[in-house]
Amino acid sequence: MRQLPPLAALRAFEAAARRESFKAAAAELGVTPTAISHQIRQLEAGLGIALFARQTRKVTLTAEGRMLFPALRDALDAMAEAVDAVKRQPMRRVATLSATVAFTAKLLVPHVGSFRRLHPGWDLRLHASDDPVDVSAGEADAAIRYGLGHYPGLTTLPLLRDDFAPVCSPHLGLHRREDLPGATLIHFGWGPMAAKLSVPTWRLWAQRSGLDRFDPEGGITFNDESSAIQAAIAGQGVALLSLALVAAELASGALVQPFGPVLEGLRYDLVYPDGAEDRPPVAALRSWVTTELARHIAAPEAERQGEG
């Protein structure tokens, strides 16, 4: 641990030694000559030596003062240069957005480049988690939540409604609902949300479709939606998936929606603390999500509504 005198006393000594005047040092540091004299006397008392020889109209350094001055001057110069260098560095501006793992991978990652084009000088941090973060506590500036849209204490901006339908690789050759009993079903876990909300499942789809000649519980089950999507793309079976999350694969033909019915899901909302809309990171995220990103995710929704 460094044992140093008070910085104020060291600064007073350095300025007085450089200026060869308590009065000039006082003017430089914005204090009175009496304050400079007091600081230096305290420093001398702490060191047990005299640093200045006092004369009527001037002060001169003692041998000990001349020994201390160069090292102290260089140290203060180095400190000043370091502070100036730090001040010249542009302040990093970071906006943190949290969303589910699947939403992040399918709808955010493909468009992250547009964020920096819209907001030069800003960095984007994506937090992918199926566990909701506490945006009120600052764990993220904003979040995209999936649910009914009721989030007390948070401002809610609706993004899109979600629909679910059977989708699969075109190589499976599924064309009719009657082909489904011979296919492998792909499931994914909804986690705690399943106990609180009515979520789309193969059992619910079977009830709506009237098709009862297959086991809606059998097949392959993943604990996350992203893995279920990848399994469907790989041709491992037919999955009941969010049409919003697989819109790109449906457009490219990597996946097909061979038949219905379509089940209505919940909705995605952008949320942030009440009254935070003017905070720079929140404003940047809101602008990005509601313009550039919304343009991409709303297009498939509009096409499906048009087909309906």
Task: Describe how the helices and strands are arranged.
Elements: H1 7-19, H2 22-29, H3 33-47, E1 52-54, E2 59-61, H4 63-88, E3 93-99, H5 101-108, H6 112-118, E4 122-128, E5 142-147, E6 154-167, E7 185-188, H7 193-196, H8 202-209, E8 220-222, H9 225-233, E9 238-242, H10 247-252, E10 263-273, H11 280-307
Parallel strand pairs: 3-4, 3-5, 7-8, 7-9
Antiparallel strand pairs: 1-2, 5-10, 6-9, 6-10
Helix pairs in contact: 1-2, 1-3, 1-4, 2-3
Fold and architecture overview:
The protein has an 8-stranded mixed sheet with strand order 4-3-5-10-6-9-7-8, sandwiched between helices. Helix content is 43%, strand content 20%. Helix 1 packs across helix 3 (33-47), helix 1 crosses helix 4 and helix 2 (22-29) packs across helix 3. It is α/β, with parallel strands linked by helices. The chain folds into 2 domains: 7-88, Winged helix-like DNA-binding domain superfamily/Winged helix DNA-binding domain (Arc Repressor Mutant, subunit A), CATH 1.10.10.10; 94-307, D-Maltodextrin-Binding Protein, domain 2, CATH 3.40.190.
Question: Nearest-angstrom radius of gyration?
Answer: 34 Å
State the CATH architecture of the largest domain.
Answer: 3-Layer(aba) Sandwich
Mean pLDDT equals 89
Name the overall outline. Answer: rod-shaped
Order of helices and strands: HHHEEHEHHEEEEHHEHEHEH
What proportion strand? 15-25%
User: How many domains would you count in the coordinates?
Assistant: 2
Span from first to last CA?
74 Å
- Poorly predicted residue ranges: 300-308
- Can you give the helix content as a percent range? 40-55%
At the first level of CATH, the class of the largest domain is: Alpha Beta
Put simply, the count of helices is 11
For the largest sheet, list the strands in their spatial order.
4-3-5-10-6-9-7-8
Tell me the CATH topology of the largest domain. Answer: D-Maltodextrin-Binding Protein, domain 2
Main sheet summary: 8 strands, mixed
State the total count of DSSP E strands: 10
Structural class: alpha/beta
